[in-house]
Amino acid sequence: MLKKKYIPVIYMEVTKMKVLVTGAAGFIGFYLSKALIEKEYEVIGIDNINDYYDVKLKYDRLEILNVHDKGENFRFIKLALEDREGISSLFKEHNFDIVVNLAAQAGVRYSIDNPHAYVDSNLVGFVNILEGCRQNKIKHLVYASSSSVYGMNTKQPFSTDDRVDYPISLYAATKKSNELMAHTYSHLYNIPTTGLRFFTVYGPMGRPDMAYFKFTKAIIEGKTIDVFNNGEMKRDFTYIDDIVEGITRVMEKSPTKMESQITNASAPYKVYNIGNNQPITLRHFITSIEKACGLKAKENLMPMQLGDVPMTFANIDELVEDVNFKPQINIEQGIKKFVSWYQQYNR
User: What is the pTM of this model?
Assistant: First the structure.
């Protein structure tokens, strides 16, 4: 009888993918960190915890992450993007596989009054992130852009093939600049980068400066809400769970080197829209909040605000084709979830 040949079993250590999430105490950063923890990623989250809105909400988000994680897959570090030495040290200390840059000074109208905050965080800070990726061989950089880059474009729906050369707010200009800088680093240093143009993200634990948050608070308290452009503006509202699902699918699929159709540039670079692909009027939006609250809004009709656009509408064909994802949650479902959270959080 032939003896069976002994084949030794080799046990390979399985290491967790390590992800840097900037803006981890922010709205999208919080939900993304939570989702990555559940997927067994090792997450390092950073945030400068600025006072653009109530920091209590930011610390509440971090507390949920710490309780949810139990110290196994998540670590938070208070750090600003514009801290060049701090960001450099962070990248050297941690061998990140993927970076998701969500930290930024947010808000269209706030950029009119506080332009330097946007330059520091969105421009200087983003260069620091790009340099960290270059110096430390990051496998994929995913970063937040914005639907605001489309400015006053009249062609609908907005496509990533459209020209976006005429932003109407400094915030939008910084986001377009991020896309340009990312392309440069992808081309020069072969860093895979993917930009995500988010369309009006909303949901529980969201930003208090957003209209849905302000409207819900005012309606519940019996106060008047300012309704701009007579409620005729349209927005492609996108629920937070859909946004996070889109981010996770994109971050796990690095872009390949694509030849430009216009120039000789070649880079592993991609930009996607992430929107619900179903714009609704501000009037419809307010009605959804009224139904969820069981109350009627008191309205103060106002003209269009400086820096606002009449309509946003995302073409998401490439997102569907490349990562097989399309947002699923409609405005009535999403607003109902938000209002339920708001009422519990503010008891």
Answer: 0.92
